[in-house]
Design a protein that fits this description.
Elements (H helix, E strand, L loop, with lengths): L2 H27 L3 H12 L12 H30 L2 H16 L5 E4 L3 H13 L3 E5 L2 H9 L3 E4 L5 H6 L7 E4 L4 H14 L4 E5 L3 H10 L3 E3 L1 H14 L1 H11 L6 E7 L11 H8 L2 E6 L5 E3 L12 E7 H6 L1 H5 L4
Parallel strand pairs: 1-2, 1-4, 2-3, 4-5, 5-6
Antiparallel strand pairs: 7-10, 8-9, 8-10
Helix pairs in contact: 1-2, 1-3, 8-9, 10-11
Length: 333
Amino acid sequence: MSSLRRLLWGLFAFIIIVVIGTIGYEVIEGWSLLDSVYMTITTITTVGFTEVHPLSDAGRIFSIFLIIGGVGGALYILTTIMGYLLEGQFGITMGRRRMKTKIAKLKKHFILCGYGRVGQEIALTFSEEGVPFVIISNDEEHVAKAEKEGYLAIFGDATSDDALKEAGIKQARGLVAAVGSDTDNTFITLSAREARPDLFIEARSSSPESEGKLRRAGADRVISPHTIGGRRMAMLALRPAVVDFIDTVTYGPGRELQLENVDVAGGSSLIGKTMEQARSQVDITVLAMRKKSGELIANPPGEEIIEDGDRLIVIGTKQRLSALEKIFEGRKK
């Protein structure tokens, strides 16, 4: 049991003892409410004041039992308070309250479920990219570690609707289910999809058998760390220069070039133009285009028409991409 819960139980027990003592003196001695409360408090705190009225034999017997129970309860509360303060629970509680306030203000953020080895790498990438996110974990050590790194974190079960709601799923941009259990990832995906039918959901899969279940549960993307790791090692052996280039433009610190996907939204000046016209207008390299229908066109030809809802995969400097965001997205909020 946590120190805070022990403290609450101790306070509850203390209140019950005061109530019992007050009622006892009222019934046994016939005293007023104020006299009964006063006598109860002075008795259980052992301050040693004289009785407000002479006690009968029954009243003295009742006082003996009240002292035994009351003094024990008072000592329990005192030691619990000291432990609560010494363990830093008060500071932790206040810190988490401030964190909840920050989380409540998040918009267009990612919810990261799980903070194991995979989750930590995801969090590090989000942090380097300047993407707002919040972590949900049912491991207190992981939550403490995330908080130490300066991340927003919630201690809770990511499969529960309450935890997802606390993480701001209604305002979130996407969710990444990266806990170690495929079963938990499936339940997380189901809960998230039910709460937000339009939410982008990416889920981790530890076995090929789970990929289909995760997709049926509502995951937009299913990732197997083992499969990706194996493919990467093979590509690094076969085409090391290509892998180095991709790492440089994707993960390299201080990189000048950056890969990005940009949605063409309503109001964009690019809608209705050919790819050749768009390239000359934005002065940026378009590597591929995913049509609204789902078709992926690599190195799209100059005569390809850009339509509302298309997604462009582009490469350029971060400053250039930021400057062109309004051109790509138009009036989209």
